[in-house]
Description:
Bactericidal permeability-increasing protein, domain 2
Amino acid sequence: MATRHLALAASVLAICMVLTRATKPGFVARITVKGLDYARQEGIAALQKELAKLKLPDFSGSFKVKVLGKVRYTFYSLNLRSFQLPSSQIALIPNVGLKVSIANAFAQLTGKWKVKKRFLWLYNLFHKKIESSFRRTMEGKVCEAVTSFVTTKLQPYLQTLPVTAKIDKVAGIDYSLVAPPTATAQSLDVNLKGEFFSLAHRSAVPFAPPIMAFPVDHDRMVYFAASSYFFNTAGFVYHTAGVLLFEITDAMIPKEFKFHLNTSTFSAFIPQLEKMYPDKLMKLRIKTSSPPFLTIAPGNLSLTPVVDIQAYVILPNSSFVPIFLLSVTSSVSVKLMVTSAEIGGTLELGRLQLSLKHSDVGPFSVQLLQALMNFYGSSILIPRINALLREGFPLPLPARVQLSNLVIQPRQNFLLFGADVRYI
Ligand SMILES: *[C@@H]1O[C@H](CO)[C@@H](O)[C@H](O)[C@H]1NC(C)=O
Ligand SMILES: *[C@@H]1O[C@H](CO)[C@@H](O)[C@H](O)[C@H]1NC(C)=O
Ligand SMILES: *[C@@H]1O[C@H](CO)[C@@H](O)[C@H](O)[C@H]1NC(C)=O
């Protein structure tokens, strides 16, 4: 029985990516040296586990010895006890990409070997020859295992990165690469399209991604830059699909609230309603009249939606009679939140500015409706929209990756957030 500790030099993998001119991205994912280091540790740990499962078959060979002639040897009962890849590296090569190298793999194994000719005292003389044959066989095995790990585990895993993520019945997000990743000495930038699109019929977006000046922050493993383009393509798609539409009915208004949605409430501001439609319930239908546009600036995210509010009276036979149509603008401040895998937000409504587009009940002072509409907007509509926004949109993360230690900063034209990554 011979127990051998063998040091094996294994394969070197090199993955190079070439820089080319890029279309402007709507979304950038930046992996810092700290992030690559973590990826390397996790990858190597997984590879070591994989290699430790390596089955080594019995094998035999022969070599010639002067005087004695051919000597046959056999290895059997081989058992790999541990496998270490202590000097793997991921290096960033500016303007080129990423180089992954795995060198100096150490395997510890036990096994038995025997030599066909009976002269036991000569074993030590053959030692070198047997070991080099053994080493070659092991190198072959390790290369095979590394290659198979890359093709069966690593590549399918990277394919779990969502290229397009379906969000709901209306829209998806396109996270495809717009250019090969670009490397500097500190980070690898992955430039993604970052564009919402309609699932029913994709059409060109009538505006372009802005320039994003990525700051030089490196204390988190990854950084994401979501440009205003990313959010505004969302607004464009949902508006075009006609789904940015909300209805407020009296049933949504809590019992204890003073201002119920009926003609008695409204006749304080539109006196003729009391005579025309006494004691009738009403309904408000709110719809964007142009795509909502998010402006992102340092320390400030704001939205200035323009919506139409159509008011109806509900008749006893359940038919709706239109009574007036308002155009409303407001500044809405936006708080964006990033959770472990999603980006969501909440809105806060500023003061509304109303103008009358059409009246079916004769003239009235729109300004008097201001407070009432503000009330319906901020206490009924916005909480409902926030509940939807809180569900969030999926971030471009591969499977089993979670974010922690988040930092968020609005920058000029984009939202920057950094995070550490945990592979679970
Ligand atoms: C209309 O709303 C007022 C409060 O704004 C309420 O007192 C009244 O009962 C409501 N009428 C109907 C028909 O719901
Ligand atoms: C935030 O942006 C809005 C709209 O662009 C602007 O009116 C407002 O003054 C800004 N606020 C700050 C604090 O910069
Ligand atoms: C509902 O009632 C109104 C007024 O009484 C009438 O004009 C309208 O045709 C009715 N609608 C339906 C669907 O019965």
